[in-house]
Amino acid sequence: MITALHKLYYVAYALAAVVGVLGFLLGKNWKYRYSLLTLTAAWALHTAYIAARWYGAGRAPMSNMFESMVFLVWAFSGGFLLARRAYGEQLDRLIPWCALMAVAATAGTAFMPSDITPLVPALQSDWLLFHVSTVMAGYGALLLSFLAGMYYFFSSEGKKQDIDTLAYRACLAGFWLLSLGIITGSVWANSAWGSYWSWDPKETWSLITWLYYAVAIHLRRTLGWKENRFAHLMAWGFVLVMFTYFGVNYLLPGMHSYA
User: Residue 30 to residues 18, 96, 178: CA-CA distances in angstroms?
Assistant: First the structure.
């Protein structure tokens, strides 16, 4: 059942992308309505998959790259659906792109071990849920800020202000979630390793990422780096997030290598 749910939500995300793109190419008025419905269904199936895996494992499914990626995509898609509800039809052109990003990320999990295994001793802590969920939700929000930033370059003048606001709000949400993730991680590290901070590669690059977004927010609030400049900041920030998430794990192994 768990494997079937994984395949179902993957197919649903793919359908949401296909409906949106095909409807756009054919000039159909229904393209965004049905694409949104399919995306919502995909997210519901995705939620059911996480719940089923949680029940089957008897723990929060956030112990390895596969499970963290599943949660990241879930947070990203859910964040977009919340934004679509808040901003309305002006975000409809983003629906296929959101679905495509979800499809690409989910396809990537096919190359990761997906078996449910017992937790290694270092992860046998109540902090697992709080730390990983806040960091992955933060990455999901920052991914949404990247998507909004990219859309800003192609949106019409009448929509640019709202898209810029979405990019900023998603960035703020991601920044504060990442802040909470770093704090919970430090507390967990102290209880597990006897030190709040050890300059492990993952810790170091998480701090660099946090500082980057702190500077981006500061530049916007104090020097007026909005719209085009802020969209560029979100684009480069996404590269930094992806290196912190993927690159560090494979290129700079450390105490977080099990993740």
Answer: 13, 13, 37
Closest CA to 243 of 206, 214, 197: 206
Give per-residue pLDDT as tens, 38-86. 999 999 999 999 999 999 888 888 888 899 999 999 999 999 999 999 8
Does any domain span residue 143?
Answer: yes
| Same domain? 124 vs 113 | no
Pick from 72, 67, 76: nearest CA to 119: 67
Burial bucket for residue 116 (CB in 10 Å: 0-12, 13-18, 19+): middle
Distance from the Cα of residue 233 to its chain's centroid: 17
30's CB contacts (< 8 A; 6+ apart) are 23
Rg of the chain (C-alpha set): 19
Residues 123, 51, single domain; the answer is no
Number of domains the chain contains: 2
Same domain, 189 and 164: yes
Half-sphere exposure of 5 (CA within 13 A, CB side): 16
Name the CA dihedral angle for 213, 68, 97, 47, rounded to a multiple of 10 degrees.
-120
In a domain, 158, yes or no: yes
The range of the structural domain enclosing residue 168 comes to 119-259
